[in-house]
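User: My collaborator sent over this chain with a note saying "see what the structure looks like." That's all I know about it. Can you take a look?
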Amino acid sequence: MVPDNKNKVDPTVQAIVEMFPEDFLRNTARETGVVERERKIDVVILFWVTTLGFGVRFLSTIRGLKRKYEEKAKTTLSISSFYDRFTPVMVDFLRKCVLHAIEFQAQQTGRILDAKLKRFKDLVIQDSTIIRLHKSLAKIWPAARTKKIAAGVKVSCIVSAVADSPKSVRIYPERTSEAKILRLGPWLRDRILLIDLRYFKYRSFDRIDRYGGYFVSRLKGNVNPLIVGVNQKWRGNSVDVVGKKLRDILPHLKREILDVEVEVEFKRRKYKDEQSTVKRQFRVVCAFNSESGEYHSYLTNIRVEILSAEDIALLYRARWEIERIFKELKSHYRMDQDTKCKPKHCEMLNLGRYSDVNVLT
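Assistant: Without extra context I'll predict from the sequence alone. Here is the result:
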């Protein structure tokens, strides 16, 4: 359970040991007040047992963690002395460790962007997932979309495809709308944000563009923008699409790619009780999918001279990176299975102000 520095064989274990050296853990424990005086509990062993034990061995009870700690520390503890360590102060300690891990990973040499993407600082992916909690937390984190007494939180994550690691992790009540989860700001400058359909909003795309950022999103099925220009012309008897609505002409196309400029209309936020209506032009790329027999449509503000239509369609596939992370957390680490937790052991999950780690710059 506790990594052995003398036998560094597995590269993953070695990377984790380098990420959390003993001095860092002891200093952080003292800063947060987890350990005031070292007695029976060794904070380094406690850290490794809590993190690796709960995630890999599925030790989802305090007693299970206690037994594993006693095995590694070669000592015997009362359940009360071990349980008393799991407090909001412990949450703060673990939160600082998570933030340290994200910062450490972000500083490591990451993937090299394709030559076509070198002008961008990063390719980032936004998504969220629901994590079920023990029902004793229903008053603190009430679940949505269920008639049973249940608890749950919505975990929002921004992942860097270059660093291959999370850049921001936030926890919200499950009922929080996706529109409120998507946090936009100056950090988007010269970065591409791949957006899920749940975050589709013209107002958000407008803000990303004004921040100097870029985006690629699937096009919602119920939107029908006006085509005002063509980026890629076809030889022969091609359908004239300018001045027509996108959904009206797609069924009549016989080309693999449609690359056009569209005009959309939306309302900006109210300012001094006034709300302005805005018209903006964005780019739409439609790529025919032979398996489904339908067009996959994408909305973006990346100009055609920077990335071709084929590049846009391929770029959006990088969204599977964050889907893979969520799937791994739920299937391998059982992040959403907290069925053995007793009410009194769930107090640590009253996260409150301990619900945000962020290293976006």
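A starting point for your reply to your collaborator: Strands lie at 122-133, 151-160, 165-173, 191-195, 214-218, 226-230, 257-267, 277-289, 294-300, 356-358.
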